[in-house]
Amino acid sequence: MKHQARKRFGQHFLTDQSILSNLIGEMRPRPDDTLVEIGPGLGALTFWLLKAVNHLQVIEIDRDLAEKLRTGPWKDKLTVHEVDVLKFDFTQLEAPFRVVGNLPYNISSPILFTLLDFADKVIDQHFMLQKEVIDRMVAAPKTSDYGRLSVMLQAYYHMDHLFDVPPECFDPPPRVISAIVRMSPKPAQERAAIPHALFSKVVSTAFSQRRKMLRNTWNGVVPDHIAQEAGIALTARAEEISAAQFVDVAQRLSTYTAKA
Fold it and tell me: What's the chief localization of this chain (predicted)?
């Protein structure tokens, strides 16, 4: 009996074997990799991954699909976690690990931000997402796609848009074009030097009214002299500031606050 895709889980099952082959070629998984797949669904990607690795961790929220994976022909090579990925404790995995998945479009950003907390344990992440989301993830400053998501992720990861995936590669076909992104955490020392809470506040306030000058959006959050010391004109807008510059502002603000 064919599994009916469930809208509440944002299910669109990838069926094009050439896309799956290309993804495996980009990932180059090794037999002993600790690899976790988010949302294995009907197992299209799972099948290809199990050709390459000795064992695979999978996270599946759909009870029926999780049961099929637990009792199917690959059961001895799978550890199935039947849970919402947003509630999954990634610390239970043997680190360092790799993450891959066709992420549900309706919760893709929350998943990406959740995984930020585990970047120290991650080798890399390969995700299929809506192309417009990936365009925002990899966008450069001074472009229309550049925003809070771009800055928050680019501060912590090297980002690569690998290739696009048209709707006809899925069952049922989504109404959007998809794409594959590779996310490789930046060096631990570089990530640890970011005062995360302050950084997040500096970025979110800057983009809260993206057409306004930073003099207005940062009022009461970033003192003028901090922005100036970082070489940022207060007449600039958030979309003109690189991720590295936002990090610099947060670091200077952290030092200034500690001394105050």
Answer: cytoplasm
| Class of domain 193-259 (CATH, top level) | mainly alpha
Q: Which residue has the tokens 């074997």?
A: 17
**Is 54 within any annotated ligand binding site?**
no
List of residues 6+ apart from 100 with CB closer than 8 A: 23, 27, 35, 36, 37, 38, 45, 49, 125, 126, 127
Residue 12's pLDDT band, with cuts at 50, 70 and 90, is low
The predicted pLDDT at position 171 comes to 81
Task: Give alpha helix (H) positions in the chain.
Answer: 17-27, 44-52, 63-71, 108-116, 131-137, 148-154, 188-192, 196-206, 214-217, 224-229, 243-259
CA distance linking residue 46 with residue 38, whole number of Å? 10
pLDDT bin (cut points 50, 70, 90) of residue 175 is confident
Answer CATH for 7-189 from 3.30.470.20, 2.20.70.100, 1.20.1410.10, 3.40.50.150: 3.40.50.150
The predicted-structure confidence for 42-88, as pLDDT tens digits, reads as follows 888 999 999 999 999 999 999 999 999 999 999 999 999 999 999 99
Do you know the residue count of the chain?
260
3-state DSSP assignment of residue 47: helix
Residue 177 pLDDT greater than 90, yes or no:
yes
Is residue 65 part of an annotated ligand binding site?
A: no
To the question of whether residue 33 is assigned a binding role by annotation, the answer is no
Position of tokens 């049961």? 67
Domain ranges for the chain: 7-189, 193-259
